Amino acid sequence: MITRIFIISLSLLTCSYCAEAQDMSVAQFKLLENDLTANTHGTERKDQFGNTAAIIKISAPMVDGYTFDGGQQGIVATEQKGGELWLYVPAGSQRLTISHRLFGKLENYHYPISIQSARTYEMLLDIGTGRFVTITSSQAKADIEVDGQFIGRSPVMHYYLPFGNHTLKAISDNQEGLLQVFHSSNDSIDAPLYRIEMQSTTPRTGTVFLTVDDNAAIYFRGEHVGNGRWRTQLREGEYEVETRNADCEPARTSFKVVANQENHVPAQVPKQLMGKLNIISKVRRLKVRLDGEPFMTGTPVEIPCGTYQLEMKNIIYRTIRKEYRVDQDKLLVDTLKVRPRVSFHIGIGYGPIGNLSTFRAIYGLQIGHHEFGLTHTFEDSKSIPFSYREINHQAFTGFYGYRFVVNNMFTITPKFGITAASINVTDTYDIEDTQAILGYLGCTFLLTSRHLGLYVTPEVNIPFSKGAGYEEYTSKNRGDINISGLGISAGVLLSL
User: Does residue 383 carry a pLDDT above 90?
Assistant: First the structure.
């Protein structure tokens, strides 16, 4: 605000001043005894030797466009903090040269006091078109205006007032004061003090009810007064508020207050700043979520600036969680390093295979889409009618499968493998050569939730070779055992 006032006030003087740039000077330089800024975590800086630098807080009519030269000691850093410039210099610095394209050059200014490590100093920089003044009022904390522009609440210290005629005004709830001044270069070199005497008035006020969407922060005369809505009493007249939101461009709204009535003011919503995010993955159609919402991968997407949480959860790949900061008008590109999930699973099942009702134990290793497994299929003793025989059948199947993901709860896995089957017969005589080798084809439909799943597997066993004993008990004439043809099993899987 102060910068804007200064620019308006000096707009007619700028051109003529360029020829008088040598008038730049230091109005005041002193040590701030109680200011610990230079020695506080977050604001301290180290010089090239690792020592804590001193801070010179420079107050000037404008804080843009200055360059600094510290001579042999150099400059550690320069930062703009509100209406001040913070100049970090090494301990022992002796002189400073200040340059500005409009205001000229102040060369080889020698510090009047020694510059010590981790200490804070104040410099008032006079550009030659005015002078620093102090403005007070008879009532504390009154609003102070200079030529109709609000500059702060009394007392206002170190305000740079351009030479010429000015109207100073102090306003409070029930008092008001006015002071006309002529500010001249012939005034005392010491900072002038202007005091505004205030008198009681009968204020003409109106109620202001201001609202803004998105719960934006509302600032009036530089102070935060509310979020989303603000209700207050103001004197009749014209005012301006500023609304702000994180990662948004501030918006200003001007409004007029009419006395003795309620003034409803819809404020402008801060404009959302935008950036772009491109998430790249070698896995096609990888599903990711950004702040809980589905996000498209493989192409730049324009989104509001801000911080986002990405999550990729998939039963095939390891979970990925990352944080991104998207900045204004910038493209952020990141490649996800997707690694397959490795897990072991065990399970039990039951179902008919051929003319047998079997139990099944399942052991498997899952590496991404690939599944390697072993099943042990067995049946309780089967009594053969009108004989003294009992038959026990069991089979081991090694298989490979490729898992297709329908969603994060449902998968389909086609499988193929080899089954080794055997028969154990209790009889009055021994039966030899009771083994068989069969080809295995199946497809598992798995419904899973985290570690526990339910499966159904239709399958078929195709004989490759049979021993004589196995052939005898699986022949069509006997029909005691038949595991060839279609079968199905269902059960539970536990993922580890």
Answer: no
Main-chain dihedrals φ then ψ at residue 313, nearest 5 degrees: -115, 125
pLDDT of 6 strictly over 50: no
Of 45-49, 81-85, 480-484, where does mean pLDDT reach its minimum?
480-484
Examine the pLDDT at 11 and tell me if it is beyond 60.
Answer: no
In the numeric block, the tokens 């099993």 are attached to: 489
Domains and CATH numbers, the chain: 2-126 (no CATH), 130-200 (2.60.40), 205-271 (2.60.40.2070), 274-335 (no CATH), 342-495 (2.40.160.20)
Question: Cα(30)–Cα(38) distance, rounded to whole angstroms?
Answer: 15
What is the Cα–Cα distance from 486 to 476, expressed in whole angstroms? 16
At 447, which helix (H) or strand (E)? strand 435-449
**Residue 465: what residue type?**
S
Q: Are 275 and 328 within 8 A, CB to CB?
A: yes
Strands (E), 52-94: 54-59, 66-69, 77-81, 84-89
Task: Quickly count: other Cβ atoms within 10 Å of residue 285's Cβ.
Answer: 8
The answer to whether the pTM exceeds 0.90 is no
| 14 touches 20 (CB < 8 A) | no
Phi, psi of 114 (to 5 degrees): -70, 145
Name the 3-class secondary structure at 18. helix
Contact 473, 434 (CB under 8 A): yes
DSSP tally for the chain: helices H, then strands E: 3, 42
Q: What is the mean pLDDT of the chain?
A: 84
Q: Which residue has the higher pLDDT, 426 or 170?
A: 170
Residue 289 is encoded by which pair of tokens?
Answer: 């979520």
Answer for the pair 292, 313: CB distance below 8 angstroms, yes or no.
no
pLDDT tens-digit readout, 357-377: 778 899 999 998 999 999 998
> Bigger pLDDT: 485 or 495?
495
Q: How far apart are CA 348 and CA 455, in angstroms?
A: 10
What pLDDT is stored for residue 236 in this prediction?
Answer: 86
**Residue 270 pLDDT more than 80?**
yes
Closest CA to 491 of 445, 459, 460, 441: 445
**Which one of 113-117, 245-249, 430-434 scores highest in mean pLDDT?**
113-117
Report the alpha-carbon distance of residue 253 to residue 434 in Å, rounded: 93
d(CA 232, CA 217) in angstroms, rounded, equals 15
Query: In 3-state terms, the chain is what percent helix, strand and coil (to 5)?
Result: 5, 60, 35
CA 322 to each of CA 119, 190, 256, 310, 334: distance values in angstroms, whole numbers, following the listed order? 41, 59, 48, 5, 10
Residue 199 CB: number of other CB atoms within 10 A? 11
